[in-house]
Structure to design on (1248 residues):
């Protein structure tokens, strides 16, 4: 057992490839825990950011600045009574959220946090991700059907129609990105001397292709990459029923859409699935267009000095967060009612500061000492950090959309999906192919 | 065979997946509730996708999941929900022709037994090359290489089908 | 036919919250200096006019009918509705003759019209006189009078920026032709008049109650419907509470 | 025996005028679907029940069932003295209580043939216009929320708070203010009233630009409001619709200009009108109205004359026998009072002509052929308050 554990440490291949089930299991557990923590953090961030958009404070009472609010919510949802409607279809009602969750979490087996930091590197990575994310529709449709009442059924039909139609546009955009992995073009764009290597569907392969070509696909074949990225960015918002496309849970018409009849833990499973799907879909976007775990400007500002500077970023971010927490503790009113909260926030600041220092130490250690272990640790730290920061940017976008946009009406939503997004994504696909071969 | 392709505890997974597939198939025909049978069908399809993976055809497995589980089954569920089931149940069931069904079933069974008895000799030798590494590429080359013409005709056929559906739906709106 | 014995002033019974029958005769303000022969309006109105006229001529006498001791000094007599003369009035005066009177009170002009003129007079006002906006249709209940209800149309013309009222008097149980074909806004307004007073309008697309529940018995805004009264039976059936309150 | 009756049979009975043969049990096959929106529904601004007859998403017909909030205000009026009835009036359109009070006081003053002094008129104009802005702000917040934009709600309610503070300082109440009395105003303006109102005007003007920046050129807002709930000028006049809804259909008519009351003639302000009477035009008209109200307030606050704030009105109000109809331009439309007096201390009959009640009647025409999501948007744009609809 132990040597299986240690033997893998040296290899720079994903556990799946190295056929090491133990490490694959460990990775799966890490990802499960990581995504759940991310969902909790996302829940808090969404409420706080939305509040500050809307000139209010957001949760302040549970824990310092509402930090314990997500935990309080989770406990509340666990304790809440789990009602199953009278003539509901028990079995389907029970399995629907599980399918939603299954679809949301299996996507993470292929998400490349780093060259070797992924559960397994399937050579059909992106295809697998799209396939599994299309399973989520089944969960929603079944939830709507099992609740056995008008509103959830209409909500379910609407959201599944929406997801199916935006999946098409999403697929086209993804294909145009995959095309870029192999086609380098010869004339105007074809700067690199790489031969027309065979493209790849595997996520890690795609990022490595971007590394080799020293360009993010966002900027490759200039306008095309950008257009495909924009199409994907809009489609992914519609895919997860968020912000301007959150019609199925439009409070004002259909009460709460397909999960009206759910309550308690079952309802929280749906919420978990929604947030997990959001993170999964933005990780696809990051991998395909924003160069996955690559640090920004790897080739313009190349060289070990720049590498070192960029490797300080993780530490500095955590120290920045710690500074914000410290400022929060200092500004906490002196009344002894707030004493517990100040202590709590102070401890949280310490933890953040500790992590920051640790990451700084790793970065400096990798620079100074030449021991291979620390260098690998620094590398994986950087990779994971840059990947997470890019996903964080997408998460913030999701919240920003929710604060500013009103909601699309259902027919407009479908019109945009079929009459605007699909033609453009088809066009981008065709032009990318042509440009790749000729230009 | 490069190490990456050493099968992963195949016998256990094989029996598990095929068992699931058979169980799902049985459930499809025995369940009274249409949605339950649709669910069972999804389980079967996913089990078959698992089998493809074990045959080192990940691309086919991926397509199986997308096309069947993600696409067609959603259609099935849509139809089951939108079509008013109470009325269909009241309509006349024409299952008095079960003897014909039985005969067809036995013929199929005989075919399977025949194949099982003959064993490997039925299949041409070279088909068994394992295509793990570049399964996607191989399919791509074949599909767009020497079977290009057939592929185009199939897509034309699909186009006709879609147009037919739209016209039928259009008439009513 | 005009003079009629003075109706005995009804003593104000019991607590104020009791049935609020109006303390003195109906307030019909149609007191002209020389009461023209009112063919249709009830005798009570004329009697009212006579009483006011007398009190007008010699303000010194205390307000006539209330039996309360005349504690308050003789109130300076309020404004009195004068006849309203305008080209519009002339035109219809000779066209409808006795069935129509035009008066103005405090600068607000109104017609008092016989019940028979109703549908086409209003149509005339809308088509020829551009009174294209029917502000309101309402009613007032005078239990003492022989023709108990005043039904009032308040009309407004955008071009002439002028507002007039058309009033007609109908007895209890009589119906009126609906003015929905003339102004679409009449639909809900007439439904409310029916809901509150029980005056039905023929030709109304959907003559049923609008504010009160469907099976409610009784018309609240009639004077004989006390403020605490409720349709106990409906309440028991639908809300299942025994007491009215 | 008293379970809530929403089984289809009762529903069918109720839908007599929708001329539909309701299927024995409404279920989800291809033909029509009857959906009950309300009376308890987040988007119906109070207890309004709209029965929607749908073909899929398209609305074929609607029927409004109202009366859930009917308190019999007109019956109460006949059992209260003139002054005692004043606070009841605020409870009708609780969002624009000051305008209700103004309308009632003006009607009774006309009956008494009494004119409020100049100072009282100026105070009345300032408070009524502040109330108009508050009412429009509340409308914008809830209307945008119905269509999905969450943020304007918090902006508008934060700014509306300033107005409510001024009301509270002036007459002690924020919402149902009972600020005016028959004959003028009871309370003198508190010290610093003019300064605070001036500060408010400076504070709110850029805020209105903020709302506009958020919504006016917002693509999805345009898509959800353009050509939604269209009503032509002729239909609007025929249906007796008044206020911003009528002006958005192109009819340039505002009672403050057409028949000025309580001193409106000595302020200049424009009347905004729209062209095609859709939800977007109504939104634009109300935004311009807010700015015009600010202009009026600025002019009024600068020139409040000295002098008494209460006309000579007897302690016990006993108007002479007679009947009077007087109406004002409330934020929602023409709010009229038809007061009949029989010479006693209690009104013989008070008829209130509520703008929301009449405007709501236009819902059916505006929504036919639209989708369910638009019904919500149109109810929002009509700016109805159920307290006033049911009285």
């Amino acid at each position: 057992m132990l040597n299986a554990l240690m033997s893998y440490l040296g290899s720079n291949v994903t556990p799946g490839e190295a056929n090491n089930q133990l490490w694959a299991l460990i990775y799966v557990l890490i990802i499960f825990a990581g995504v759940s923590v991310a969902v909790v953090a996302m829940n808090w961030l969404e409420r706080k950011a939305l509040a500050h958009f809307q000139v209010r404070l957001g949760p302040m009472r549970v824990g310092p600045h509402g930090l314990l609010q997500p935990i309080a919510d989770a406990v509340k949802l666990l304790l809440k009574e789990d009602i199953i409607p009278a003539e509901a279809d028990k079995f389907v009602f029970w399995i629907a959220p599980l399918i939603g969750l299954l679809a949301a979490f299996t996507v993470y087996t292929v998400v490349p946090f780093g060259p070797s930091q992924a559960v397994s590197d399937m050579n059909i990575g992106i295809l697998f991700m799209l396939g599994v994310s299309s399973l989520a529709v089944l969960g929603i449709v079944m939830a709507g059907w099992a609740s056995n009442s008008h509103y959830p059924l209409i909500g379910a039909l609407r959201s599944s129609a929406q997801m199916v139609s935006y999946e098409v546009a999403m697929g086209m955009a993804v294909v145009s990105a995959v095309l870029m992995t192999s086609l380098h073009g010869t004339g105007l764009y074809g700067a690199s001397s790489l031969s027309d290597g065979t493209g790849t569907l595997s996520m890690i392969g795609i990022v490595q292709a971007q590394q080799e070509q020293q360009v993010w696909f966002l900027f490759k074949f200039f306008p095309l990459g950008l257009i495909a990225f924009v199409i994907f960015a809009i489609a992914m918002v519609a895919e997860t029923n968020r912000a301007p496309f959150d019609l199925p849970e439009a409070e004002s018409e259909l009460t709460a859409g397909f999960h009206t009849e759910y309550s308690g833990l079952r309802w929280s499973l749906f919420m978990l699935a929604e947030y997990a799907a959001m993170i999964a879909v933005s990780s696809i976007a990051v991998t395909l267009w924003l160069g996955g775990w690559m640090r920004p400007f790897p080739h313009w500002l190349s060289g070990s000095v720049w590498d070192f500077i960029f490797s300080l970023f993780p530490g500095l971010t955590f120290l920045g967060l710690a500074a914000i927490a410290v400022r929060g503790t200092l500004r906490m009113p002196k009344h002894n009612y707030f004493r517990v909260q100040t202590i709590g926030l102070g401890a949280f600041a310490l933890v953040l500061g500790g992590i920051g220092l640790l990451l700084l130490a790793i970065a400096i250690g990798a620079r100074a000492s030449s021991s291979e272990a620390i260098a690998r640790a620094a590398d994986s730290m950087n990779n994971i950090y840059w990947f997470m920061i890019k996903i964080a940017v997408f998460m913030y976008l999701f919240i920003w959309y929710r604060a500013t946009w009103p909601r699309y009406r259902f027919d407009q939503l479908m019109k945009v999906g079929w009459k605007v997004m699909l033609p453009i994504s088809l066009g981008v696909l065709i032009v990318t192919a042509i440009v790749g071969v000729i230009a | 065979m490069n190490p990456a392709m050493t099968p992963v505890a195949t016998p256990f997974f094989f029996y598990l997946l095929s068992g699931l597939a058979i169980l799902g198939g049985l459930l499809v025909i025995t369940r009274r509730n249409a949605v339950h049978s649709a669910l069972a069908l999804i389980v079967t399809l996913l089990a078959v996708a698992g089998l493809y993976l074990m045959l080192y055809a990940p691309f086919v497995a991926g397509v199986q999941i997308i096309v069947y589980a993600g696409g067609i089954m959603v259609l099935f569920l849509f139809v089951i929900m939108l079509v008013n089931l109470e009325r269909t149940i009241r309509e006349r069931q024409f299952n008095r022709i079960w003897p014909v069904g039985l005969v067809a079933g036995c013929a199929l069974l005989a075919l399977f037994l025949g194949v099982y008895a003959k064993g490997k000799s039925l299949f041409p030798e070279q088909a068994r090359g394992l295509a793990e590494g570049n399964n996607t590429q191989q399919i791509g080359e074949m599909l767009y290489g020497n079977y290009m013409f057939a592929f185009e005709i199939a897509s034309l056929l699909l186009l006709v089908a879609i147009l037919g559906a739209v016209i039928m739906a259009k008439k009513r709106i | 036919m005009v003079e009629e014995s003075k109706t005995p002033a009804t003593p104000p019974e019991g607590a104020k919250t009791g049935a609020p029958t109006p303390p003195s005769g109906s307030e019909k303000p149609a007191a002209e200096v020389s009461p023209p022969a009112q063919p249709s309006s009830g005798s009570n109105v004329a009697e009212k006019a006579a009483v006011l006229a007398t009190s007008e001529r010699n303000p010194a006498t205390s307000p006539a009918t209330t039996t309360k001791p005349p504690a308050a000094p003789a109130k300076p007599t309020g404004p009195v509705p004068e006849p309203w003369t305008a080209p519009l009035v002339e035109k219809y005066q000779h066209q409808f003759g006795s069935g129509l009177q035009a008066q103005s009170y405090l600068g607000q002009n109104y017609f008092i019209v016989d019940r028979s003129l109703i549908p086409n007079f209003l149509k005339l006002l809308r088509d020829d006189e551009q009174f294209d906006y029917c502000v309101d249709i309402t009613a007032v209940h005078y239990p003492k009078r022989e023709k108990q209800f005043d039904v009032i149309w308040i009309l407004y013309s955008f071009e002439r920026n002028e507002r007039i009222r058309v009033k007609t008097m109908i007895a209890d149980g009589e119906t009126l032709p609906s003015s929905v074909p003339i102004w679409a806004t009449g639909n809900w307004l007439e439904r409310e008049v029916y809901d509150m007073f029980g005056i039905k309008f023929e030709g109304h697309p959907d003559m049923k109650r609008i504010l009160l529940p469907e099976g409610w018995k009784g018309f609240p805004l009639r004077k004989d419907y006390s403020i605490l009264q409720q349709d106990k039976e409906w309440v028991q059936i639908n809300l299942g509470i025994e007491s009215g309150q | 025996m008293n379970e809530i009756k929403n089984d289809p049979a009762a529903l069918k009975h109720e839908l007599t005028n929708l001329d539909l043969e309701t299927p024995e049990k409404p279920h989800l096959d291809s033909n029509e679907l009857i959906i009950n929106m309300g009376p308890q529904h987040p988007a119906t601004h109070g207890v309004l029940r709209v029965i929607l007859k749908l073909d899929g998403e398209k609305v074929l017909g609607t029927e409004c069932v109202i009366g859930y909030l009917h308190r019999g205000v007109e019956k109460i009026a006949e059992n209260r003295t003139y002054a005692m009835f004043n606070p009841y009036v605020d409870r009708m359109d609780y969002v624009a209580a000051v305008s209700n009070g103004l309308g009632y006081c003006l009607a009774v003053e006309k009956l008494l043939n009494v004119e409020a002094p100049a100072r009282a008129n100026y105070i009345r104009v300032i408070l009524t216009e502040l109330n108009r802005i508050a009412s429009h702000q509340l409308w914008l917040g809830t209307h945008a929320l119905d269509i999905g934009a969450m943020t304007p709600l918090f902006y508008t309610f934060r700014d509306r708070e300033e107005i409510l503070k001024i009301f509270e300082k002036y007459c002690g109440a924020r919402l149902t203010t009972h600020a005016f009395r028959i004959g003028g105003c009871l309370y003198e303006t508190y010290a610093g009233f003019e300064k605070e109102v001036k500060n408010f005007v400076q504070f709110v003007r850029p805020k209105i630009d903020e709302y506009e920046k958020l919504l006016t050129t917002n693509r999805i807002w345009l898509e959800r409001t353009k050509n939604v709930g269209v009503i032509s000028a002729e239909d609007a006049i025929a249906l007796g619709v008044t206020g911003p809804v009528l002006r958005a259909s192109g009819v340039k008519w505002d009672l403050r200009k057409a028949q000025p009351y309580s001193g409106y003639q000595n302020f200049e302000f424009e009347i905004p009108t729209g062209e095609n009477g859709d939800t977007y035009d109504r939104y634009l008209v109300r935004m311009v109205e807010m700015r015009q109200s600010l202009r009026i307030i600025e002019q009024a606050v600068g020139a409040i004359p000295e002098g008494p704030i209460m006309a000579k009105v007897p302690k016990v109000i006993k108007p002479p026998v007679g009947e009077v109809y007087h109406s004002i331009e409330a934020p929602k439309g023409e709010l009229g009072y038809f007061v009949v007096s029989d010479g006693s201390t209690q009104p013989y009959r008070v008829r209130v002509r509520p703008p929301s009640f009449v405007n709501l009647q236009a819902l059916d025409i505006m929504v036919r052929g639209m989708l369910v999501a638009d019904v919500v948007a149109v109810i929002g744009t009509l700016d109805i308050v159920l307290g006033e609809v049911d009285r």
